[in-house]
């Protein structure tokens, strides 16, 4: 069985065994309220010109367990395309897979590069595009 952390207050998170009931037992209203409160704080800090505070709270939001839980729930349950595989060709349907997704997105704090796709245009070929017509600035 996979193991997921469950945070309560300050201190170390408890480890719980994941079952179907564990995913359903998560207090989703509390999770949504905490994430929304943090997002609201980020917005207010950015609006008032407190950039350092906004960046600090953004980092906290990215690392937040509740934010990761909510993100996985929105993609795997609430989303209309939840049964469609994504770019990674994976779908998370069971609660165990959802908890694994929450743990997997833990370390990804830096965005990946965009995927470039060649779109053919009249009068050009791919070789000339790669050589001199693309300027990243």
Average the pLDDT over all residues and give the rounded result: 77
The tally of domains stands at 1
**Global shape:** flat
Rounded radius of gyration (Å):
20 Å
The helix/strand series, from N terminus to C terminus, equals EEHHHHHH
Number of strands: 2
Give me the side-by-side strand order of the main sheet.
1-2
Q: Figure out the total of helices.
A: 6
Share in helix:
40-55%
Structural class per helix/strand content?
Answer: mainly alpha
Ends: how far apart?
Answer: 48 Å
Strand content range: 5-15%
Which regions have little confidence, pLDDT < 50, spanning 5+ residues? 6-13
Q: Main beta sheet, described? A: 2 strands, antiparallel
Gist of the model:
Pfam families: RVT_N. The protein is mainly alpha-helical and 137 residues long.
Explain how this protein is built.
Residues 6-13 have low confidence and may be disordered. Helix 2 runs antiparallel to helix 3 and helix 2 packs across helix 4 (65-78). This protein has six helices and two strands; from the N terminus they run ββαααααα. The protein is mostly helical and 137 residues long. A hairpin with a 7-residue loop joins strand 1 (3-6) and strand 2. It is flat. The chain has helices at 20-24, 28-47, 51-63, 65-78, 95-104, 126-133; strands at residues 3-6, 14-17. The protein has one domain (3-107).
Topology record:
Layout: E1 3-6, E2 14-17, H1 20-24, H2 28-47, H3 51-63, H4 65-78, H5 95-104, H6 126-133
Helix pairs in contact: 2-3, 2-4, 4-5
Attribute tags:
137 residues; mainly alpha; two-stranded antiparallel ribbon; 6 helices; 2 strands; RVT_N; Reverse transcriptase N-terminal domain-containing protein
């Amino acid at each position: 069985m996979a193991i997921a952390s469950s945070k309560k207050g300050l201190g170390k998170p408890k480890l719980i065994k994941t079952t179907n009931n564990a995913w359903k037992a998560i207090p989703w209203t509390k999770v949504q309220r905490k994430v929304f409160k943090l997002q609201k704080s980020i917005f207010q800090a950015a609006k008032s010109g407190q950039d350092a505070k906004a960046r600090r709270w953004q980092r906290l939001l990215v690392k937040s367990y509740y934010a990761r839980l909510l993100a996985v729930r929105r993609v795997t349950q609430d989303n209309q395309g939840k049964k469609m595989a994504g770019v990674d060709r994976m779908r998370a349907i069971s609660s165990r897979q959802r908890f694994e997704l929450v743990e997997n997105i833990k370390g990804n704090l830096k965005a990946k590069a965009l995927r470039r796709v060649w779109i053919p245009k009249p009068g050009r070929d791919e070789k000339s595009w790669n050589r001199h017509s693309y300027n990243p600035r």
